[in-house]
Amino acid sequence: RRVPRKRGSGSAISVTVSEGGSYARVMERVRAAIDLRDVGIASSMKLRKSAAGGLLLEVTGPGSKLAADRLADAMRDVIFATDEDERGVTIGRPKRRVELRISGFDESIDATVVRSEVALEGLCSSAHIRVGDVEFSRRGLGSVWVQCPADASLALAKAGHLKLGWAKAKVELLKGASLRCYRCLAVGHVQQRCPSVMDRSRCCFNYGRHRHVWRSCKDRPRCPVCEDRGLPSAHRAGAAGLCRPV
């Protein structure tokens, strides 16, 4: 019997080095300059590769968030405090994000208002919130896609509603999205690890052809990935449950 895999409870630090750079060099420099005990980390950390090929350092245990923040700051100081060219190195603090659908508000509400209210009610920074284009139904009611840190998303979804203007807008938790490659439009991997020789990065997501973007597309959906594989293709590229991972 397969045991469900538990999500880690630690705090992560991401290290990304641009093409031509050296992860070994970066890690050697920070290890030589930083004592983990000085930033509140008593033992070693878990290391793993991200889906995009970067390096993730996971700090676990009590106080892991503060310790990870301190370590990330210390690493940035080491990497960027010299005259050496390290512009291709990024030290980040990735946050697990969860997607929401917020609906049932009037035309006076725009993405700026949504972001502000989500930050206020979700108790998170607006810098960590992504808001899609607001769309309106034939009845004139708006809906919008939102992505924000997991704690904020789950709190809003539990409440079930969000005050937007005078409206009590509905908040729904969306199912986690599969990995999608924005180069070949297939699912199951990301563009940094794309195995395909086909570059569809300039193609419409809806129809799979050049010349226009999906927001202005009026053609019927057609998935070029499934079509090339001889599979049913009357759907948008990457459609959940219809496209097989590559």
From TrEMBL:
Recorded superkingdom: Eukaryota
PROSITE patterns: ZF_CCHC (PS50158)
Annotated transmembrane regions: none
Source lineage: Eukaryota, Metazoa, Ecdysozoa, Arthropoda, Hexapoda
UniProt protein name: CCHC-type domain-containing protein
SUPFAM superfamilies: Retrovirus zinc finger-like domains
Alphabetic keyword roster: Metal-binding, Zinc, Zinc-finger
Entry's Gene Ontology molecular function annotations: nucleic acid binding; zinc ion binding
Organism from which the protein derives: Trachymyrmex cornetzi
Limits of the CCHC-type domain: 180-196
